[in-house]
Amino acid sequence: MGLKFSNFGKALVSSAPAGSTGLNFTVEAGKGLLFPALEAGDYFYGIFKDASGNREIVKIEARNADSLTIAAGGRGLDGTTARNWAAGDYFVAGMTNAALQESVSNP
Questions:
Q1: Which of 19, 45, 65, 100 is spaced 20 to 30 A from 26 at the CA atom?
Q2: DSSP letter at 85?
Q3: 3-state SS string over 7-64?
Q4: Average pLDDT by stretches of 10, the chain with 107 residues
Q5: What is the largest distance, in Å, between two alpha-carbon atoms of the chain?
């Protein structure tokens, strides 16, 4: 249980979180499998990115196929700000400072 990673997790957002406080979103059909499979207590960090280069790091606590759930308090992490996102923006399971710090402190 705990922090999970995946290779090449990148997809277009199909249905964005509601405003800057929403916790649920979907990615394009069939691309959810590119992100970590999560069981109770598992999570991963992801990054929203738009065409203007805006970014937000979030903590994902659940994934069911192409539907993902951001943890409560898991928006605007690692020095980023919670923002409004739209369909067509990108979501990536990328390396973040938070993930690296946790990995280093929990050998």
A1: 100
A2: -
A3: CCCEEEEEECCCCCCCCEEEECCCCHHHCCCCCCCCEEEEEEECCCCCEEEEEEEEEE
A4: 90 97 98 96 97 97 98 97 98 89 75
A5: 37
